[in-house]
Amino acid sequence: MSDDTHTMLFVTFDDPAAAHAAFTEAKELPGARQAAVLRRSAQGVLDTPESWVRGAGAPTVASGIVGGLLGLFGGPIGVLLGWTAGTVVGGAAEWRHFEEGAEGLLVYSKDLAEGCAMLIVELHERHHEPADELAARHGGTLLRRPAEEVAAEVRAAERAADEATRAQRGERGEE
User: Fold this and answer.
1) Span 48-72, average pLDDT
2) pLDDT tens-digit profile of 56-66?
3) What share of the chain is helix, strand, coil (3-state, %, to 5)?
4) Closest listed residue to residue 149, CA positions, set 114, 91, 108, 98
5) pTM for this one?
6) Average pLDDT over residues 16-28
């Protein structure tokens, strides 16, 4: 495989410690953009003990700097107000991206067995070997999916949840 493909990796582990070790290495995979570990306790509680996003914080900092520079036209107070406004805008964009990612994690955690863990990695993959070797080295079972398909499934799940919420509100007479 030599084409760069946008891929989602789902690596399931019976041993949660192996998922944590694989997470550390997954951040170094060529083309890795973000990764997270999901863990389901023996009581069925879902936890995300590890997550990472390449360049996290960069939009917030960049928009704060741009706002501050634009604020130069208003003097010292303009710099402060511009920086603050820019940081708020950048932070809101990052929060939206975080929420979308969290919703995706919930969609794929439904089949995670109690006491097990899953490593989810989003990457632009040129070759399968690095990820295949990572999963094998840590005893994980790898499922590779095109990111576009995963995103479509997450959007469909979000729509279904929204419709169920609206239907439930309608039954109770809420608006």
Assistant:
1) 60
2) 544 544 555 55
3) 55, 25, 20
4) 108
5) 0.68
6) 95
